[in-house]
Specification:
The chain is an alpha+beta fold. The chain has one domain (20-87): Beta Barrel (OB fold (Dihydrolipoamide Acetyltransferase, E2P)). It contains 1 helix and 6 strands, in the order H-E-E-E-E-E-E. The chain has one helix at 3-18; strands at residues 21-31, 34-38, 45-47, 51-52, 70-76, 82-87. The protein has a 6-stranded mixed beta sheet with strand order 3-2-1-5-6-4, with no helix packed on it. A hairpin with a 2-residue loop joins strand 1 and strand 2. It is elongated.
Length: 88
């Protein structure tokens, strides 16, 4: 790895560390399979394999998610995983 590439890599890591989580509102578009649509990204659907749900919001629980529910998500660094915090 060249020195310039190493510096770029370290700089990107430092920027990501400053904001490791971004809060993003979303809407449940489908329950089976679970999919979310981010509020400001109408065409971007988040599939169930990228979602982390608290037990109380899972299928079979009293407060399970339904299509049309609005939720607050925390997008983890890189946007590869989304933790559903709660209904809003």
């Amino acid at each position: 790895m060249r020195l310039s590439d190493a510096i770029k890599h370290l700089a990107v890591g430092a920027v990501d560390a400053e904001a490791p989580v971004e809060l993003m509102p979303a809407e449940v578009t489908s329950v089976s399979p679970l999919e979310l649509k981010l509020k400001d990204h109408d065409k971007l659907l988040i599939p169930s394999d990228a979602l982390i749900l608290p037990k109380r919001l899972r299928s079979g629980e009293e407060d399970q998610l339904q299509a049309g529910d609005r939720v607050m998500t925390a997008a983890l660094t890189g946007g590869q995983s989304f933790f559903v915090l709660d209904k809003i």
